[in-house]
């Protein structure tokens, strides 16, 4: 049992320090890829799909002299590396006009392509594509839990061992957010919610930085009609889900209330499966005849089909949602020119 002398803080403050503090999980040299696997790590097909989306954004913007690709929550630059490998095949000199940015709090990794500008903040007023893959789920949030009277209280946690206790009643703007997006008041004891207000603000600030183009956030999430009754806060270490302890030893993540992030704007929510198919991903098996005429090509095509199937699986990565927000794009842009 945790000692009363332990430091007790809300989950948002604890996760902020554990993930992004001086020795935080996301600042360590080895990077997060060894602890959890995203769509970017699953297959180079994902980066190629983002490159195709970048091409479509370029067309919608009229092929500007400089086109930015901002990777928000860039990890160790894996997505940008994949996109840069794909862009030489794109038309209209896009590769020469492209300016890639990696936005990440960790130090720049050795060996990253010199064209990538590494920075801690999103550039202001850029023209192009902002792409945030599994970034919002790592924006720390507080956790609320109903007490014996059905009153939502802030959950406090000890960084030493992850022990929890109920703190003060949730009030003010956080209470208003809960009432609108994840109602708990009067519910049975022990129900939980993650208070997503900081994520709404973080997404709005990221979109504000786009001068013209498209902002996309990709994450696992939920909507108001089907919130998980006990929340989703968890940890990942060495590729396995573990109990969340804010001691910097593991990733701390929670699903995103994406409908709250999208509220009051022209943002759209699209299943990843639909977005990737629209961008050209196909999990169909190659024709068997190819195995006899070109066995090596058949094996390559079969491997690509398997990778595409993983990205499109509705019970897995294909079940992620794309939150998309156009900024300053032509009003008469044909439906489906960018995404379905």
List the helices and strands and how they pair.
Blueprint: E1 8-10, H1 11-20, H2 39-42, H3 44-60, E2 67-72, H4 78-86, H5 94-97, E3 98-103, E4 117-119, E5 126-133, E6 142-146, E7 152-158, E8 164-169, H6 172-181, E9 192-195, H7 197-208, E10 210-219, E11 221-222, E12 234-237, E13 240-242, E14 251-253, E15 256-257, H8 258-262, E16 268-271, H9 272-278, H10 289-293, H11 295-312, E17 321-327
Parallel strand pairs: 2-3, 2-5, 3-4, 5-10, 11-15
Antiparallel strand pairs: 1-7, 6-7, 6-9, 7-8, 10-17, 12-13, 12-14, 16-17
Helix pairs in contact: 3-4
Oligomer description = single chain
Kindly report the average pLDDT value: 93
Order of helices and strands: EHHHEHHEEEEEEHEHEEEEEEHEHHHE
Cα(first) to Cα(last) distance is 52 Å
Number of helices: 11
Give the low-confidence spans: none
The major beta sheet can be summarized as:
7 strands, mixed
Main structural class: alpha/beta
Strand order of the largest sheet: 4-3-2-5-10-17-16
């Amino acid at each position: 049992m945790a000692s009363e002398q332990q430091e007790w803080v809300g989950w948002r403050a604890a996760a902020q320090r554990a993930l992004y503090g001086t020795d935080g999980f996301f600042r360590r040299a080895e990077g997060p890829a060894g602890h959890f696997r995203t769509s970017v790590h699953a297959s180079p097909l994902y980066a190629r799909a983002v490159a195709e989306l970048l091409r479509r954004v370029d067309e919608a913007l009229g092929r500007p002299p400089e086109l930015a690709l901002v990777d928000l929550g860039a990890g160790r630059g894996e997505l940008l590396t994949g996109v840069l490998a794909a862009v030489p095949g794109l038309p209209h000199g896009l590769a020469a006009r492209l300016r890639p940015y990696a936005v990440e709090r960790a130090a720049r990794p050795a060996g990253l392509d010199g064209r990538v500008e590494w920075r801690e903040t999103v550039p202001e007023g850029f023209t192009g594509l902002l792409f945030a893959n599994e970034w919002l789920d790592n924006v720390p949030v507080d956790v609320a839990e109903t007490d014996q009277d059905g009153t939502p209280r802030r959950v406090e946690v000890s960084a030493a061992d992850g022990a929890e206790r109920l703190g003060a009643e949730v009030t003010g703007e956080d209470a208003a957010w809960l009432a609108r997006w994840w109602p708990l008041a009067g519910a049975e004891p022990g129900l939980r919610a993650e208070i997503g207000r900081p994520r709404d603000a973080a997404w709005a600030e990221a979109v504000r930085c786009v001068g013209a183009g498209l902002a996309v956030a990709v994450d696992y999430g939920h909507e108001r009609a089907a919130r998980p009754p006990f929340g989703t806060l968890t940890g990942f270490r060495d590729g396995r889900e573990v109990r969340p302890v804010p001691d910097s030893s593991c990733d701390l993540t929670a699903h995103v209330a994406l409908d709250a992030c999208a509220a009051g704007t022209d943002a759209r929510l699209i299943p990843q499966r639909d977005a990737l198919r629209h961008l050209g991903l196909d999990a169909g098996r190659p024709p068997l005849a190819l195995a006899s005429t070109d066995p090596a090509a058949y094996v390559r095509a079969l491997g690509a089909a398997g990778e595409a199937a993983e990205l499109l699986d509705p019970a897995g990565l294909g079940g992620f949602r794309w939150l998309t927000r156009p900024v300053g794009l032509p009003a008469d842009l044909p439906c489906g020119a960018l995404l379905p």
